[in-house]
Design brief:
Helix content: 25-40%
Strand content: 25-35%
Largest sheet: 5 strands, parallel
Pfam families: LytTR (PF04397), Response_reg (PF00072)
Keywords: Phosphoprotein, Two-component regulatory system
Order of helices and strands: EHEHEHEHEHHEEEEEHEEEEEH
Strand order of the largest sheet: 2-1-3-4-5
Shape: elongated
Oligomer: single chain
GO molecular function: DNA binding; phosphorelay response regulator activity
CATH architecture of the largest domain: 3-Layer(aba) Sandwich
Structural class: alpha/beta
CATH superfamily of the largest domain: Response regulator
Organism: Sulfuricaulis limicola
Number of helices: 8
CATH topology of the largest domain: Rossmann fold
Protein name: Chemotaxis protein CheY
């Protein structure tokens, strides 16, 4: 069984590697220090199972697991955690394998022997119960069986297009299967609804102006195309503009 160890602390990674050597029958194919590395290395190395810490800087283990669900053949995940009992109850209810730190050899061996693949529903329910609920740091894009992670701060806007949503950065665009309603719920503090089919990053807005036709448009930093503001959302957008000075 091929194992990827994911933890931001080197001592913890070394400890897991030693325990795996003692148990025998497992090959450590790599290590990662955060969730972003875990997703990238999983796509590259195709491990059978991840031993993954939950609390890590940047992308945490729960978000990484959610992105991994998009792989053609996702690995099993065993979480390692120092969470308190309230959070651990969520793992028990959802029948997800986890190891409480400090990790014991017999407990690790037992978890590995029954490691199973997670479902998106399990991860979503545990994410809601964790002590520090948070929105995703990245959006995952599926390209020919691989996962491409797009940092949320790089996204200029989300645009609904048929059954897909266009994710636009200054350099490129991708299609994801999601809904603007869900994205607005998750990122509503960072994105502004300007149209029934568009959410714009507030940090990317350069200005708002009227075009010759008398309707309002938004201009963005580092992007030439202007986006139309619908009549229905004009008042909300202008109110936002009045309350927040915009950079040039």
């Amino acid at each position: 069984m091929r194992v990827l160890i994911v933890d931001d602390e080197k001592l913890a990674r070394d400890r897991l590697r030693e325990l795996l050597n003692d148990i025998g029958g497992y090959t450590v194919v790599g290590e990662a220090m955060n969730g972003t590395e875990a997703v990238e290395k999983s796509s590259e190395l195709n491990p059978d199972v991840l031993l993954m810490d939950i609390r890590m800087p940047g992308m945490d283990g729960l978000e990484a697991a959610m992105h991994l669900m998009g792989m053609e053949n996702p690995p099993a995940v065993i979480f390692t955690t120092a969470y308190d009992q309230h959070a651990l109850d969520a793992f028990d209810v959802n029948a997800v394998d986890y190891l409480l730190k400090p990790i014991r050899k017999d407990r690790l061996a037992k978890a590995l022997s029954k490691a199973h693949k997670l479902t998106a529903k399990q991860i979503a329910e545990i994410s809601q119960a964790r002590p520090e609920p948070a929105s995703r740091t990245h959006i995952s894009v599926h390209l020919r069986g691989n996962i491409r992670l797009v940092p949320v701060p790089d996204i200029l806007y989300f645009l609904a297009d048929s059954k897909y949503v266009v994710v636009r950065t200054a350099a490129e665009e991708h299609l994801i299967e999601d809904s603007l309603v869900n994205l607005e719920k998750e990122f509503g503090d960072r994105f502004l609804r300007i149209h029934r089919n568009a959410l714009v990053s507030t940090g990317s807005i350069k200005g708002i102006e009227k075009n010759p036709a008398g309707t309002w448009q938004i201009s963005l930093k580092n992007y030439d195309k202007k986006l139309d503001v619908s009549r229905r959302h004009t008042a909300q957008v202008r109110r936002w503009a009045r309350n927040r000075p915009m950079a040039g």
